[in-house]
Design brief:
6% of the residues lie in helices and 49% in strands. It is mostly beta strands. It has an 8-stranded antiparallel sheet, with no helix packed on it. The chain is globular.
Length: 128
């Protein structure tokens, strides 16, 4: 299944540098209507003490639309994401498999009951 997640390459120095700037950061994004009278939160993103994104919430005018909670493996790469709906109930669980260079190889999508729903494969092709 996803056994190779732990075998992926360590996080690059560039990524670690970016994460250092986001330690314990919370970012809120706001929308305002064209008349400037109504304002509502669009996104909330939370980073942990290592600068890794651990939670992202997308809002609509009625409240939370979707919430994604991210956990990381020992290698520092995303191991699992749990996607919640507008009622804060899990609707999808994503687990990742990586190539030796640290790029994503496969994304396994599971239903909340643990049943495999689909698999997404990543292919990388560089052009000259």
């Amino acid at each position: 299944m996803c056994a190779s997640v732990a075998m992926a390459q360590e996080v690059s120095p560039e990524t670690l540098s970016k994460r250092a700037k986001r330690k314990n950061l919370t970012v809120t994004e706001w929308n305002t209507d064209s008349k400037g009278k109504n304002r509502w939160m669009d996104h909330l993103t939370i980073y942990d003490e290592q600068g890794r994104k651990i939670e992202e919430i997308e809002y609509a005018s009625y409240g939370q639309r979707e919430r994604v909670v991210t956990t990381y493996g020992e290698n520092g790469l995303v191991a699992k994401e749990i996607v919640y709906n507008d009622r804060n109930k899990p609707v999808r669980i994503r687990k990742y498999e990586y190539n030796p260079d640290g790029t994503k190889k496969k994304q396994y999508n599971y239903l909340p009951n643990g049943k495999l729903y689909s698999i997404k494969e990543y292919n990388y092709k560089f052009s000259d």
